[in-house]
Design goal:
This protein has about 325 residues and is mainly α. The chain has helices spanning about 10-15, 45, 70, 80, 100-105, 110-120, 125-135, 140-145, 150-155, 195-200, 210-215, 220-240, 250-260, 260-275, 275-280, 290; strands at about 20-25, 30-35, 55, 60-65, 90, 160, 175, 185, 190, 280. α11 packs across α12, α12 runs antiparallel to α13 and α12 packs across α14 (about 260-275). About 30% of the residues are buried.
Length: about 325
């Protein structure tokens, strides 16, 4: 299970810091540690349920994944996303209603996945677009959110699930549950791979459904089963389109039971198996001048200082 910092919308590490060194950036939602303010209390190390904050014994400061914010600020994906050989990492802008977070995190444990999805907003909704523009979100960000692959996985197709939502920090990284590889059987020295044996039942998978539910849906099996059925239906759809050995009526029933259409199955296949960098990463350059204007610094003075900022090394002591 590849894991980095979840950059939660309700981060416990930020709330725990006595020095106020941790903060969540408003322009992109990245959670960072201010090395000048950090005093090495290490409360964040204890508070993070995902254990993604570390203590640097040499500098006496806490450190964590910064989501390669110098790259994100210029519209590039983070290094781990860009270099992923399996092309399994996607990144995109998401619009959410911060006022709904508190109520969503009070939801019963079995309803946490749906409660978290309710916080995320549809970027194609005219009311959401109007409110986003009213709040100062640029048209480029709104367009990016509308094309975001993350929104498709999480809200439109409901394939991606949050890691351990029972921690109630509202993690903003999501995972698509895994399917077993396509399997065949050999009888009388003849290799068979007909549709009845290729697709093993999701209830007989090596990773038990209950185990995946404990990881991604706080023990509620239904969201995981729903996602797995859709993924399996896409397999049937692609087999039917390439080999034609599945009857049309049976295929329609499989898609109907999974709750997706043929167009959605084709779109899921295209985004999971055939994505290019422009499909997987949908992040516009950060408009840092908007956040800088709220400080004592002038945007004109900060030109050319995109990214790392200070170059001095953090040291122990005050």
């Amino acid at each position: 299970l590849p894991r980095i910092c979840n950059h939660c919308a309700n981060p416990s590490c930020v709330a725990s810091c006595p020095s106020g060194a941790l903060y969540k950036r408003g322009e992109d939602g990245i959670v960072l540690v201010n090395q000048d303010k950090c005093r090495g209390w290490r409360a964040c190390v204890t508070a993070c349920p995902y254990k993604k904050v570390y203590y640097n014994w040499k500098t006496g400061k806490s450190e964590k994944c910064i989501l390669c914010y110098p790259r994100v600020e210029t519209g590039q994906p983070p290094a781990c996303f860009h270099t992923c050989v399996g092309r399994i990492r996607y990144m995109g802008a998401m619009l959410y209603d911060a006022e709904r977070i508190e109520e969503a995190m009070k939801a019963p444990q079995e309803g946490l996945v749906e409660a978290q999805r309710s916080v995320l907003l549809d970027p194609c909704d005219p009311e959401v677009i109007a409110q986003a523009q009213k709040n100062g979100i640029s048209p480029g960000w709104i367009e990016s959110a509308q094309r975001s692959p993350v929104f498709k996985y999480v809200c439109e197709w409901k394939l991606a699930l949050p890691l351990h939502p029972e921690f109630r920090t509202l993690p903003m990284l999501y995972y698509v549950p895994p399917l077993l590889p396509v399997m065949g059987r050999s009888e009388s020295n003849i290799y068979e791979h007909d549709a009845d044996t290729v697709f093993t039942s999701i209830d007989k998978a090596r990773l038990p459904m209950k185990y995946l539910a404990m990881l991604f849906s706080a023990g509620n099996i239904e969201p995981v089963r729903e996602a797995m059925k859709k993924l399996l239906a896409v397999r049937f759809f692609q087999r039917s389109s390439t080999l034609g050995d599945i009857e049309p009526d049976r295929l329609k029933k499989i898609l109907r039971d999974a709750g997706i259409s043929e167009a959605q199955a084709q779109a899921i296949y295209a985004l999971t198996a055939l994505p290019g960098p422009e499909d997987r990463f949908m992040m516009p350059p950060i408009q840092r001048e908007e956040s800088i204007e709220g400080t004592s610094c002038s945007p004109d003075k900060c030109k050319g200082t995109c990214g790392l900022g200070k170059t001095e090394h953090p040291q122990r002591g005050l």
